[in-house]
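Task 17 of the worksheet. Students: predict the tertiary structure of the chain below and write it out as structure tokens. Keep your answer in the requested format; marks are given for formatting as well as content.
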Amino acid sequence: MPLQPTNQLQPIDSTGLKANELLAELKAAQEELRAAEAELATEQAAVNAFRMHARLMLDDLADAITALLAEKQSLLTRLELERQATEDAENPLGPNAEPQPLPDDMEDLMLPTPTARDKAAEKRLYRELARRFHPDLAEGAAELAYRTTVMTAVNAAYTAGDTQALYDLAGELEPDELRELAGIESHELRQLRERILRCRRRRRKVARQLQVLREDKTARLWRKAREMRDQGEDWWTAVRRDLEAARVRLEEEVALLACQASDELRVTSDE
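Model answer:
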């Protein structure tokens, strides 16, 4: 029997090599996802703790200022109604009597509200999603069906003003990723690739969530307080000082408006 050549090339298991590459890629994607989720959870916990601490430290002043703002608005409305009734075109506050608004960061902290809708940002996101998922760009029936489904959801979310849903849809599978999966014949390799893409999709969603969190008013105040602390400044003392000054200013404005309203009532009675 003739001997086989010792230097003969052995067949290469290309599927096995590709699987190893995908497993390494999957591990890296999973590590990136875990790190992103940990960052989001840590920052969310810190912002929530800051919000609770802010209430403990500042709620007394916030409540007092909220009551003064409501009283001031009521007096302004009353004076305006009196002015309209008497057709008096003069400003009831008098010259240079317009109160100065509170600093934005103080008002945000005293009156916590959800982050205002940024319609321009929503429109930009909608256009981005339309460019990515528009059905006219489909290559094949399967991709057309996928693009149509996603775009229908995008249109519904945009019409409803559901920004969170738009952010979630931004993390959906890209059409070119769908085409890539369709071109993989091996079931094992296709499953590995799907797991990688799911990790990346989740990673994009976490990144969007972190972006939304960092745009929140309380989160912005938390970052400011942290920066001041790092510089050796006491943010809480500075905030209470500003709030105390705002309360005093509002008390003076309310007292002035009350006097003006009383004078208007007396003039009306005399007439």
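Marker's comment: The two ends are 131 Å apart (CA to CA). Confidence is low (pLDDT under 50) at residues 3-13, 94-100, 102-115.
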